[in-house]
Amino acid sequence: xxxxxxxxxxxxxxxxxxxxxxxxxxxxxxxxxxxxxxxxxxxxxxxxxxxxxxxxxxxxxxxxxxxxxxxxxxxxxxxxxxxxxxxxxxxxxxxxxxxxxxxxxxxxxxxxxxxxxxxxxxxxxxxxxxxxxxxxxxxxxxxxxxxxxxxxxxxxxxxxxxxxxxxxxxxxxxxxxxxxxxxxxxxxxxxxxxxxxxxxxxxxxxxxxxxxxxxxxxxxxxxxxxxxxxxxxxxxxxxxxxxxxxxxxxxxxxxxxxxxxxxxxxxxxxxxxxxxxxxxx
Length: 281
Hints:
three-stranded antiparallel β-sheet; elongated; 10 strands
């Protein structure tokens, strides 16, 4: 297969839009991949002509662009385009890496970086797909409007919501809806009663290995309460939008605070078990 055909073919698979900066130079990269969790390693693909400068510096930063930076990304495209190495605006995250290894392959090289720290700055990432850029859209039907959300909460409280609609993101959104005018203890009591009742209505057994989970319900009540208090939102709907944007897909957030499998722990399901570790910065 020729290079042009291959380049067009691989652009059919989405990848994050990212910029590598090192010393006094920067360039767009592709094929950003998390290679290993322990130790934390990432890889990117660069043209061989950039390797010498990267080796001289020995460390680099990967900036993952937010969806609102599509115009900047288009100016930097295609991958391999050099740009000013000043701080890149509008990023969803930055990964600060030490150059670990370079694997040369044809006209490109796989650069492996040992991640020293990560700055999660929020926002939705920009994705390179079919030779252009797209924002990531997550669809939450229960957040279609304030009225739809109010009805969703009423159906949950009445036990008439379909079982399939009670997802993690729904739990987060409903918790924020209630947190708007409740303190943390009242929020927890409301969510506990609501989940126990809802599970009974939809046939979910609340037992030692499934159904209601005391520790996770309290943990998420505290987490959502803190977000809503800090945000000082003007309405329940705004609180729910912000909570789902932040935590709607963050199902394993609790792992930052527990050293054991709290989900499957029978004691934690039965009674409150406080976090046993501090989340890393």
